[in-house]
Structures are given as C-alpha cells and as structure tokens.
Amino acid sequence: AVPISLENCAKTFTDGTRALEPVDLAIAAGETLVLLGPSGCGKTTTLRLIAGLEQPDAGGRVLFGGEDVTALPIEKRNVGMVFQSYALFPNMSVAENIAYGLRLRRQSAAEQRARVGEMLALMRIERLADRSIDQLSGGQRQRVALARALAVRPRALLLDEPLTALDAKLRDTLRFEIDSLLRELGITAIYVTHDQAEAMALGDRIVVMDHGRIAQVGAPRDIYQRPASRYVAEFIGTMNRLSGHAEGEVFRCPGGYVAWPELPATAREILFRPEDTRIAAEGEAASLHGTVSAAFFCGDHVRLFVDVGEERPLVLETPARREYRHGETVALAVERHGLMVL
Ligand code: ADP
Ligand code: MG
C-alpha cells in the first residue's frame, strides 16, 4: 500500500468549467478515503486526477509514495478502477475479463491462470469463471469488476460510485463485502459516493466536497458530531434546526425554549440531531411544543415530524408502541450534549 497525495490540484476543463479549486489532500497508506458530495461537486474529477485520466492545471502535483506521478499516464500508475457502469467487456468471459490487465502486462499464461483463480476465490465467484458478462446480475458484475481491478495488484484501488446502480439490499451486501475486502487487503482506496450512509460505513476518513472545494475532512464520527459548517451538517444525516435568540442560558424560539448553559449569546440558530430529540416523558417539565405533521411507522420505531413553527418540522424517532395522530400536540425534550451552533 502506498500513501497518495494531491498538492495544489485544480482542474479547469477546456470549455472553461472549473471542476476543482486548488486542493491539497493526503491519503495514508492502506487508508480508505471517501469523497462525498452531491452530483457535480468534483468527486469523479478528483478520482480521475489520481488515476491519471486527467491532468491537473499547471502547478498541481500527484504523488504516489513520494514519487511524482503527475506526468505518468494511467497504465504506468498501476491503479485499479471500478465504476458504477461496471465497464466490463461483454464479449469476454468472466475469467477473460479478470485476466485482461494481466494480458496487457504480458504475464505468462500460467501466471494469468493462477492470478485469475486467486481473484475468483477472493470474490467468491469461482462458479462464474466461464460465464459471459450478459449472463450476470448487477452484483455479480460488480464482483467481477473488483476482481479485474485487483488482479494486477494495483498500488491503489479507485472506486467511483460502484454500488449506485444496484438495488438497496444488494448495495448493503456489497458494501459489507467491499469493507471486508479493503480491510483484508490493506490497500489504499479512494471511494467516491454521493450516499452519506455509504460514506460513513466505509470511510476511515471522509472528504466532504462542495462545488470543487473541500468542505471538511475527518473521521465519520467527527464529521457527524462536529460538522464544520451548515453545509456539512445538512449533507450528513438529518439536522434539526431552531431559529430564535439567546436569553442568558435559554434559547427562545417560536415553539418555546431550549435551556443550554453553554449557549453563545449571539446564537440565532441552534442545531441538533434527531437522536438527540425525544418526546418528553410523562410529567417531565417540557419547554418545547409542537404538532405532529407526519408520523411514519417503520416497524421498530416511528419517524415523527413535528411542526414547531419553523420553516421545517423537527424530525425524531420514537418507539412504535404508541400511535401518533396528525395534528396532535406533543412536548419535546432536546439532549443538551447534542446541541450545536454553526
Ligand atoms: P461529480 O463526480 O462530483 O458528480 P464531476 O467531477 O464529474 O462531479 O464534475 C464536476 C464538474 O465538472 C461538473 O460541473 C461537471 O459538469 C464538470 N465536468 C466534468 N467533466 C467535464 C469535462 N470533460 N468537460 C467539461 N466539464 C466537465
Ligand atoms: Mg461522479
């Protein structure tokens, strides 16, 4: 595994589109780094700069283990790539697809056979070796794409939304498999996704991107619990928001107030997660009230939307044993440790 770094890498396309502002990014050897952000924020462009499919604007450098690879084309960087669209060769068998990179590198037939066998076993697709690609399901195709990318023993694995085309259940299964695989191989991996749940599950660290800029870099927990900006706070998970003003240790808002000893005097808005929001217990002195605007039964819990006179209702999850009626008044409590101001 090699560390990878981007130094001052910007990208302006020939039509003038500025896809990436100058970024600096260091990926540790063996780390899984996730690039996360909405469509068009520059994730794929960043990945393609690392792969050597694009050149950074003048002054940008890409380093693999300290070696400057900026001028090296993709075939000399020895990276494995996996795409949303699989990009497999439909006229070749599974085994031939996996062997593709080995053939390009003129490895002997015996070596190719051995490596293909190893990759089939690694991805647990031995029985698919002689199938043609169009006989495979989406999940099987993505396993083949992973096997093909890894067969050449790449210095890094680059994945661009590899699970986006799959249905939810399969996405969960493959997310788990990819996580185990990356851990087992200890390979440096850069994983692009617009799905925040996927990013949090897979990333050692997450880079949140916004219009070609890095909005925040950190471990999933840091990003979730200590978002650096409103953009990050709202992109990762769900964030509840109350607007109002501080009165000493109390934040006053249309729905009532929230007591918070550390409340900054200038606060005009406080933020907190759904899991730090709950229905007040019977007899508990509640300071915040609202009316139920939607209640979605989710089996083990109810996802409740409570209108407290804000632009958006507050969201919380509550045990399903009690039913909630639309328009019913509820008293809420907010856990102090979850409060933040940005
Ligand atoms: P993401 O992968 O986050 O969706 P991209 O990196 O693909 O974003 O694109 C970032 C921006 O650059 C977008 O505005 C996109 O339209 C633009 N872009 C991407 N590739 C090209 C290209 N070859 N020529 C011009 N603009 C491009
Ligand atoms: Mg993309």
Task: Summarize this structure briefly.
It is built from nine helices and 20 strands. The protein is of the alpha+beta class. The strands form five sheets. A six-stranded mixed β-sheet has the order 6-7-8-3-9-10, with helices on both faces.
Question: How would you portray this structure in words?
Answer:
The chain has 342 residues and is α+β, with helices and mostly antiparallel strands. The protein folds into two domains: 4-235, P-loop containing nucleotide triphosphate hydrolases (Rossmann fold, 3-Layer(aba) Sandwich), CATH 3.40.50; 240-338, OB fold (Dihydrolipoamide Acetyltransferase, E2P). The protein has helices at 43-51, 74-77, 94-104, 109-122, 138-151, 168-185, 196-202, 220-225, 230-235; strands at residues 4-12, 18-27, 32-36, 61-64, 67-68, 79-83, 156-160, 188-193, 205-210, 213-218, 240-243, 245-247, 250-253, 256-259, 269-272, 277-279, 288-297, 301-307, 314-319, 329-334. The strands form five sheets. A six-stranded mixed beta sheet has the order 6-7-8-3-9-10, sandwiched between helices. Helix 3 crosses helix 4 and helix 3 (94-104) packs parallel to helix 5. It is elongated, with a radius of gyration of 24 Å. The structure holds adenosine-5'-diphosphate (ADP) and magnesium ion (MG). Residues 13, 15, 17, 19, 37, 39-45 line the site of adenosine-5'-diphosphate (ADP).
